[in-house]
Specification:
single chain; about 190 residues; alpha/beta; eight-stranded parallel barrel; 6 helices; about 30% helix
């Protein structure tokens, strides 16, 4: 099923920890049964075959809940799967001179500054994650930008932007008031 940016949920969820494939499927199903979300399959430091196995499970669950699935993976892995889109982190953003995937797929990109946001749009990104809006324990070296700067930064781009970094469900109203499409969180993963 083709998705557009108009069909994006206000909630963007990164997958978290799990014990095995059954636990992964149960946690994903539980999170999506609470409300529709864009799902980013994020699992670092695993074999490609294991990531593809998880992607297959996620594809099935996301289809069941009519949710968008983005893979935080290499182009090679992405082309072997059947996800709705690809997510690039800011470390690989400048490795590309043009859009790395076809237009019918969504391209999501993590950004931390205007230079990265500009590069993401140059590549034809459909979704931006801007962080850290609030201080986070996962990236203590990065200074939080706050809602005012977030609002100023996203005024420079055309595509939907999700607030990331220290976000909780209770931050959705502040994010929307600052012009965000919504919030990106991993706390929905339980």
């Amino acid at each position: 099923m083709a998705h557009t940016t108009e069909s994006l949920s206000e909630l963007y969820m990164m997958t978290g920890q799990f014990d095995d494939h059954i636990d992964f499927k149960n946690k994903l199903s539980n999170a999506l049964s609470q409300s529709n979300k864009v799902v980013q399959l994020r699992k670092k430091n695993i074999e490609n075959s294991e990531y593809l196995a998880l992607a297959k499970i996620a594809e099935s669950v996301c289809r069941q809940f009519n949710s968008i699935l983005l893979l935080a993976a290499s182009i090679d892995i992405f082309t072997q799967a059947h996800a709705d889109g690809l997510h690039l982190n800011s470390r690989v953003l400048f490795e590309y001179d043009s859009r790395p995937i076809a237009e019918q797929h969504l391209l999501s990109v993590s950004c931390h500054n205007l230079e990265e946001m500009t590069q993401a749009e140059k590549l034809g990104a459909d979704i931006l994650l801007l962080s850290p809006v609030k201080a986070t324990s996962s990236h203590p070296e990065l200074e939080a930008i706050g809602w005012q700067k977030f609002k100023q930064m996203i005024a420079h781009v055309q595509c939907p932007v999700y607030a990331l970094g220290g976000m909780q469900a209770s931050d959705l109203t502040d994010a929307k008031q600052a012009g965000a499409k919504g919030i990106a969180v991993s706390s929905f993963w339980k």
